[in-house]
Design a protein that fits this description.
four-stranded mixed β-sheet, 6 helices
Length: about 180
């Protein structure tokens, strides 16, 4: 039996951060350059004050037709950020991620300084944890879209049917 692994063993250190006043476009460019889907947002004292994800940008800026060079991150970022400590056991953090339906977390030291990020991908790549596949499957279950029964698109194209959890089939992601 091996010693319990901590988040410090699997996390990505040295997370790139943004300022709350940085533009949404700058955040999207940083995400593209770094090939990441989330970036922590810190104030001038380096305190974690938010997290911006690619989803935040799409839903809170693009979909609402608000995207501009001057739109600050404070307008689209998540302000109440969940995070974990670097010395927490991987299994405990993984359980919390599943329960809260999240894929990545900022990681703090015990002085509450941001020291990195951890994702389900980090856990999968750096451990033999069989729970990662189950965690990803649970977190990735799509929400059932609610659509009126007679919805017709303006273009007249075929509309996708409503998906309900009972319509979902187990997905084998390589674990037996």
């Amino acid at each position: 039996m091996h010693a319990t692994r901590t988040i410090a063993d699997v996390m990505s250190r040295g997370a790139h951060t943004l300022s709350p006043d940085d533009s949404v476009i700058r955040a999207a460019q940083a995400m593209e350059s770094l090939d990441v889907g989330a970036l922590p947002v810190c104030d001038t004292q380096h305190n974690l004050v938010g997290l911006v994800t690619d989803r935040d940008i799409v839903l809170r800026a693009v979909a609402r037709n608000r995207l501009s060079e001057s739109l600050p991150l404070t307008e689209v970022m998540s302000h109440e950020v969940l995070w974990c400590y670097e010395d927490e056991p991987v299994d405990d953090v993984l359980d919390d991620m599943v329960q809260r339906q999240i894929r990545r977390l900022p990681v703090m030291d015990r002085q509450k300084n941001l020291v990195g990020m951890v994702s389900l991908g980090d856990v999968a790549a750096k451990t033999q944890n069989r729970g990662v596949g189950n965690a990803l499957a649970e977190i990735s279950l799509p929400a059932a879209p609610v659509r009126p029964a007679q919805e017709v698109s303006p273009s007249g194209d075929f509309e996708l049917p409503e998906v309900r959890n009972s319509d979902m089939h187990e997905v084998n992601i390589g674990h037996k």
